[in-house]
Amino acid sequence: MSKVRPTYDDEINLFEFFERLWDGKWLIGAFLMLAASMGFFYSQVVQSKYDISVSYRVNVYSVFSQQMCEGHASHCFAERTEEVFLEGLGSDWSLNRNGKVISRTTTSPSPTNEYEAHFSKALISTNKALKIEALSELTTIESLSNDGVLATERVATNLLNAKRIIQSLDSGQNAISLGPISVVKRSPKSSRIIAFAAILGVIVGVFLVIVRDGLKKRNEQLVKL
Q: What integer pLDDT is reported at residue 65 of this predicted model?
């Protein structure tokens, strides 16, 4: 003898559930429109932020970096040049050594040509600083009178590096090469805000429809009693 599965009044009926939602579509739609409108208004009022970024490549290593970083990873050689360039840009800028990107965040971006002028000024000061270091090293080595010291491989390498830096900078090569400047709106993302607000409005509308129908059903049951 097969057993008959009992049924309960509170058992979930998907068809009935979606039927309730369809009956409450105007309420759900009203909350959707209200929430989306609020999201749009917020996206227009809140202060926007922009990311200014530019890729870079180090062309000339500091003479001191080449002395200190012997046997180290390649990124060690570029650190001194990067630091000097960042000092020329100012504290508002940050440097990502792994991604080789210089960036900053602002609420009021300037025209691209102004950033180009700012980078150009920092490049000039970087070139000058590296050349002064190389000239200082060259002067120090040439002032040595001990032939034994001058003949060492270390001193010869430092002398060659200093001359190579001076020659590169004098030939017009910049210590750092820069890519195109990118200006991207970081926040708020209007489309995302409106979409999130609309979804939230639908959730609230569905919740209210379920609560309303639940209360209605309960009242009907009380009336029957």
A: 87
Rounded Cα–Cα distance for residues 53 and 203 (Å): 39
Q: Tell me the CB-side half-sphere exposure of residue 105, using CA atoms within 13 A.
A: 6
**153 vs 33: which has the higher pLDDT:** 33
Q: What is the pLDDT of residues 164-201, one digit of tens each?
A: 999 999 999 999 999 999 999 887 777 888 889 889 98
| Whether the Cβ atoms of residue 172 and residue 60 lie closer than 8 Å to each other | no
Q: How far apart are CA 182 and CA 103, in angstroms?
A: 9
Q: Which tokens belong to 212?
A: 């309303």
* 175/24 Cα distance (integer angstroms): 67
SS3 (DSSP) at 215: helix
Plot region of 90 (φ>0 → left; ψ -120 to 50 → alpha; else → beta): left
Q: What is the dihedral of CA 101, 102, 105, 111, to 10 degrees?
A: -110
Q: What is the pTM of this model?
A: 0.65
